[in-house]
Structures are given as C-alpha cells and as structure tokens.
Amino acid sequence: MGFLPEYGEKVPGYDVRVLNEREARAAAAILFVGAFIGLTNGVMLQTAVFSKYFISFFTLDFLIRILNPRYAPSLILGRFFVQNQTPEYVGAMQKRFAWGLGFIIAVPMFYYLVISFEPNPLKVLVCLICMFLLFFESAFSICIGCKMFNLFMKEKATHCPGGVCEIRVKDDVQKFNPLQKIILIFTTIAVIWGTYAYFTELKDRTIFVKKMKELFMSDEALEQMQYEQDMAEFEEEEF
C-alpha cells in the first residue's frame, strides 16, 4: 500500500473509517510529558535546547498524522504501550481535523522557537494551550478539536470517544446528586483559588514563580527590577 491510502482504517461494523482512540490518547500523553519537560527546562534552567528538539518532533509528527497516521512516530509509540488493550474506534475525519489544528499551532511555534528564536509571553501561552489540549485528550479522552469539527463541517462527526456524538441518556452512575454538585462547586473554587494563591501570595519563594513572573513582565519592568536589585546589592556593599 502507498504512503497516502484512504484516511483511517476500514473496520467491519463501522460506516466510516476509524482510528484507535487508545493509541491517540497514549500518544497525547507522551507528547504532554515532552511539552512539560520542555516548559520546566525553559522556566527552571532557562534553556530551550530540549524544546527545540521536541517542537521539531511535534511539528513533523502532526504533519505525518494529517497525511497518514499509520506512520506517525508518537502514534506508533502509543500503539506499543496499548497493543494488548481492546481498541476503541473513533471516526477518523474528526481526528484528522483536530490534528490539523494541532499542526497549525505547531508551525508558528516551530518558526519562533527553532528557526528564529524569539520567545515571548504570547508564544509561551500558545505552548500552554497546546499542553492543555494534550492533557484533556490523554486524561479525559476529550478531543476539543474533534468537537470543533461539527462547527465547521456540514457532515457531523460520528463514533466520538465515549460515544458523546450519539444522543443517549446518562446512566444513574454518571449523574450528580445535590451533595455531589455542592462538592464539585467547592472543589472547583478551591482549585482556582489555590492556583491564584500560588502565583500571587507566595511571591518569589519558588524559582518557578519568580521565572513565570519575569517571563510575563515587560522590558521596562524587567529593567526596573534589575535596577532595584543592583541598588540593593550596592547598599549592602556600602554597609
């Protein structure tokens, strides 16, 4: 067979070509780990060496995904880890659409972090969005790009992960009773407040918080901070 056969696999019992969602989730988890390592290297060690290699791999991987996912390195690696699990088939076209969006995100990251190294807060935000999408797919089997497929395509997606594309009634085990709803609300508030407190109330007690603050500061603010540090060191030497 050629490198560009019909997209997806033909599986008996499915009216459209499909892909194995278990492989996709495993691949998303692998890429998320790579992105996380790149982010922590940049923040903690202030080096982009790992990120340059990872983004190059990420861009090439997603290009291959939208051409022929059979040969995408991350999907092959994901298959290795889940080869003994029962496949979960999902529609191939919405996955291709989602991976196309991933490739669109990857191209500017590749240019600004590999070809012409110009990191700034906006580019870091794009990386965080990419990590967010990878995390949701790997942890919750929620393909946000697949959901966007229905907004742009006339033909609606079928065979989505977890059967969310098909109309069905939730089982009792999937519903929330009043107490569970209250716990969910308070848990969400606690997570949001905790995140806010970490980045604000802890000030610069951790290297991570300090680097994140510096990353999002303007040049003028960085110069002012450096001036204050120099003055403080000068005063210490004087006394």
What is the element layout, followed by pairings?
Elements: E1 18-20, H1 21-45, H2 49-67, H3 73-82, E2 89-91, H4 92-115, H5 121-140, H6 144-152, H7 178-200, H8 207-215, H9 219-238
Helix pairs in contact: 1-2, 1-3, 1-5, 2-4, 4-5, 4-6
Low-pLDDT stretches are: none
DSSP summary: helix tally: 9
Rounded to an integer in angstroms, the radius of gyration calculated over CA atoms is 22 Å
Helix content: 55-70%
Number of domains: 1
Keywords: Membrane, Transmembrane, Transmembrane helix
Organism: Sulfurimonas marina
Protein name: DUF4395 domain-containing protein
InterPro entries: DUF4395
Can you tell me about this structure?
The chain has 239 residues and is mainly alpha-helical. The protein has one domain. It has 9 helices and 2 strands; from the N terminus they run βαααβαααααα. It has a two-stranded antiparallel sheet with strand order 1-2. Helix 4 crosses helix 6 (144-152). The longest helix has 25 residues, at 21-45. It is globular and about 80 Å long. The termini are far apart. Keywords: Membrane, Transmembrane, Transmembrane helix.
